[in-house]
Amino acid sequence: MIVIAVTALTLIGLLYALLWYPLNSSIQSQRSAIETKTGSLAFLNQSIPTLAGLRAGGGIQKETNKSPFQLQDQITDELESGKPERAEPVGDKKVRMSFNNVAFDKLVSVIAELELYGVQVDTINVTRKKDTGYVSARMTMVGK
Q1: CA–CA separation, 24 and 36 (whole Å)
Q2: Which of 15, 17, 69, 107 has its CA 20 to 30 A from that of 133?
Q3: Which class for 95: exposed (0-12), middle (13-18), buried (19 or more C-beta within 10 A)?
Q4: Is 107 in contact with 81 (CB distance < 8 Å)?
């Protein structure tokens, strides 16, 4: 009688450990992933009108009489993104910049701000760093 009770408890324990617990954990992780993705989707849906308006209007443009080299110096100061490790003009309308360890979101902000002035990315090479969110980048940007 005791052997049967111990066997039954062992089988119940094994079923829980091998079937119920992994299945329940998987369901919980899937639910949290759905919640996260639902939040991201809501954010993207809210951004659609803004993006459509910018695309239709050709985007917001700012005017300047500075060269791309002078402009990148001004923008990196204003956005406090850190100075490029190396910045050099390439002719009148191009600037080559190298960032060694910069936050990716700051780099994107600098690029976006320069594009508002009509300075476009010609080439870019981005390498992920060991620290989360940091990259090194080399790029050439061309002004109008």
Answers
A1: 19
A2: 69
A3: buried
A4: yes
CB 16 within 8 A of CB 24: no
Q: What is the pLDDT of residues 94-134, one digit of tens each?
A: 889 888 888 888 888 888 888 888 888 889 998 988 888 88
Q: How far apart are CA 136 and CA 139, in angstroms?
A: 10
Per the confidence metrics, is the pTM higher than 0.90?
no
Report yes or no: 118 and 143 within 8 Å, Cβ to Cβ. Answer: yes
Report d(CA 96, CA 113) in Å as an integer.
16
Distances (CA, A) of 41 to 53, 82, 134: 19, 32, 25
Contact between residue 119 and residue 141 where contact means Cβ atoms under 8 Å apart: yes
Q: Are 111 and 120 in contact (CB under 8 A)?
A: no
Tokens of 114: 């320069």
**And the tokens for 46?**
């809210």
Which residues pair with residue 123 across a beta bridge?
Answer: 140
Q: How far apart are CA 118 and CA 89, in angstroms?
A: 16
- Phi, then psi, of 37 in degrees rounded to 5: -70, -30
| CB atoms near residue 130 (< 10 Å) | 6
